């Protein structure tokens, strides 16, 4: 996953080698010596000066890798004997080099330790900032862990071969942020590519996440003086002057795609970049193997047997497909953690709003309530929504008092109210499905096209799975309507019906 590769947004006069997954993040590699005053350094180290850039050379990279690949470098620096090796598979784009992946170097059985990476070869905030209290201060205020790690690798990138992490950064550059499915995060897609996600709430989430990254970038200069060892190492390289926003964004997304969330460790070690970890490991939602912190190392214990040469897979947490796409650039068709969100809220103009809010709170719900709809459990989700929606339809004050005096969720009060609630829910799911520009049948036809470009393919996979969840919700709602005892009853009027988003 390339940390600093994409020069698409930057003048060709300062082409920088890549540094983060999920993009071609070209990073300015400044070779100027530390000036004696800040003003002078700003001129000497400006990223627009092509004389300060170390240009990427494909032939040189290949020769270097033949001499010493990532695993060889790790072995030379303390990696103990392990049971994995690096293999390569072709990229979907013939213009790009093949990507590496971690495979079993011998037959493995469940419970085997495949690899144990010593902490000296792991990048954490403890290493980046040199002070755990500073790490806590930064990451609980203006900068996230990902921003700190991205910035660290970007500055290391500027050192070129002088950096201890050069072989690791070179491997991330080779991956180009593509992960094992060779697709970068939609955070780095163009506007026209994001249109593949039209109708999906993921599109808005991508835009919101991009705005968040921009806010972090704008805060860099205000907190840089607090950055511990980094500030001491680069006291004159003001982050926003050293790296344009698009470079930082690409680095951020790259780190996001390969960071490991370690459990039961201090804050300063919680987020880690582990060579031979992601993006060289494949992800699978039904896998339970995780990189875990042990004494002095991060190790991987496999949860299934492997034949020599098979790719090693790991679990990426209970994430829905929308998160998998944004974070890692892939969608898992068999993801049992996949889900969508339905937001319902009580109408604030309702004269009985406060009473209804109190009734909702008694049943563990909020005035603005989100309902998680898990794949395969759509009917259960619909049944969970009904008591909340019924509450919004109560209009008679005496009926409301009865609700307040009772315990438990709101049960059906009348046939016409139940019909109104179900009709509103059905119409909501119909409208959400109508928001997609394609039908399920058209999605299936697109996915059957072998020439479909990878970004459109993964986006189509996502929206297809979302539509299946919504259709299952609609079917569950229609089934409940069909079970009503009297279909001749007209729905009750609802001047203050709850709002669904």
From TrEMBL:
Q: Name one GO biological process term.
A: methylation
Q: Which keywords belong to this entry?
A: Methyltransferase, S-adenosyl-L-methionine, Transferase
GO CC terms of this entry: chloroplast stroma
**Rubisco LSMT substrate-binding domain: from which residue to which, for each copy?**
348-470
Entry's EC annotation: 2.1.1.127
Q: Which residues form a coiled coil?
A: none
Give yes or no: UniProt keyword Secreted: no
- GO MF, one example: [ribulose-bisphosphate carboxylase]-lysine N-methyltransferase activity
Question: Into which EC class is this enzyme placed?
Answer: transferase
Pfam family of this protein, just one? Rubis-subs-bind
- CDD domains of this UniProt entry? SET_LSMT
Q: What is this protein called?
A: N-methyltransferase
**Which source organism does the UniProt entry give?**
Handroanthus impetiginosus
């Amino acid at each position: 996953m390339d940390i600093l590769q994409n020069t698409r947004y930057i003048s060709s006069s300062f082409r920088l080698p890549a540094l983060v997954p999920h993009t071609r993040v070209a990073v300015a590699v400044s070779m100027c010596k530390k000036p004696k005053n800040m003003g002078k350094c700003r001129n000497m180290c400006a990223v627009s000066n092509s004389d300060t850039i170390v240009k990427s050379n494909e032939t040189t990279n290949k020769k270097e890798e033949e001499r010493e690949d990532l695993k060889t470098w790790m072995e030379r620096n303390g990696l103990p004997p392990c049971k994995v090796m690096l293999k390569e598979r072709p990229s979907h784009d013939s213009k790009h080099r093949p990507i590496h992946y971690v495979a079993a170097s011998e037959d493995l059985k469940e419970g085997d330790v495949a690899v144990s990476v010593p902490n000296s070869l792991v990048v954490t905030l403890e290493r980046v900032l040199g002070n755990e209290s500073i790490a806590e201060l930064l990451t609980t205020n203006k900068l996230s862990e990902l921003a700190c790690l991205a910035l660290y690798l970007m500055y290391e990138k500027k050192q070129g071969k002088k950096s201890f992490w050069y072989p690791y950064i070179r491997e991330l550059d080779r991956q180009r942020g593509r992960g094992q499915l060779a697709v970068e995060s939609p955070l780095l897609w163009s506007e026209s590519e994001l249109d593949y996600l039209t109708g999906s709430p993921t599109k808005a989430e991508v835009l919101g996440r991009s705005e968040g990254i921009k806010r972090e970038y704008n805060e860099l200069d205000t907190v840089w003086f607090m950055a511990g060892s980094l500030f001491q190492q680069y006291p004159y390289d003001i982050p926003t002057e050293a790296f344009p926003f698009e470079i930082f964004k690409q680095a951020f997304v790259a780190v996001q795609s390969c960071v490991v969330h370690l459990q039961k460790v201090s804050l300063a070690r919680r987020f880690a970049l582990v060579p031979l970890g992601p993006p060289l490991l494949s992800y699978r939602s039904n896998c339970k193997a995780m990189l875990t912190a042990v004494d002095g190392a991060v190790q991987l214990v496999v949860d299934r047997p492997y034949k020599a040469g098979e790719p090693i897979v790991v679990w990426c947490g209970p994430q829905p497909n929308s998160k998998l796409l944004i974070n890692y650039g892939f969608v898992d068709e068999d993801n049992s953690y996949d889900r969508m969100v339905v937001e319902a809220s009580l109408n604030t103009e309702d004269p009985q709003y406060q009473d209804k809010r109190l009734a909702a709170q008694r049943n563990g719900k909020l005035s603005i309530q989100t309902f998680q709809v898990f794949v395969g459990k759509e009917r259960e989700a619909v049944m969970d929504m009904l008591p909340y929606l019924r509450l919004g339809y109560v209009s008679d004050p005496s009926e409301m008092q009865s609700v307040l005096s009772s315990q438990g969720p709101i049960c059906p009060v009348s046939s016409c109210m139940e019909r109104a609630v179900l009709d509103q829910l059905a119409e909501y799911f119909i409208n959400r499905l109508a928001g997609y520009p394609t039908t399920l049948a058209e999605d299936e036809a697109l996915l059957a096209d072998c020439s479909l470009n990878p970004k459109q393919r993964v986006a189509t996979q996502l929206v297809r799975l979302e539509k299946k969840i919504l259709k299952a919700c609609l079917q569950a709602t229609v089934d409940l309507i069909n079970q009503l005892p009297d279909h001749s009853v007209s729905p009750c009027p609802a001047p203050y019906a709850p709002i669904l988003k």
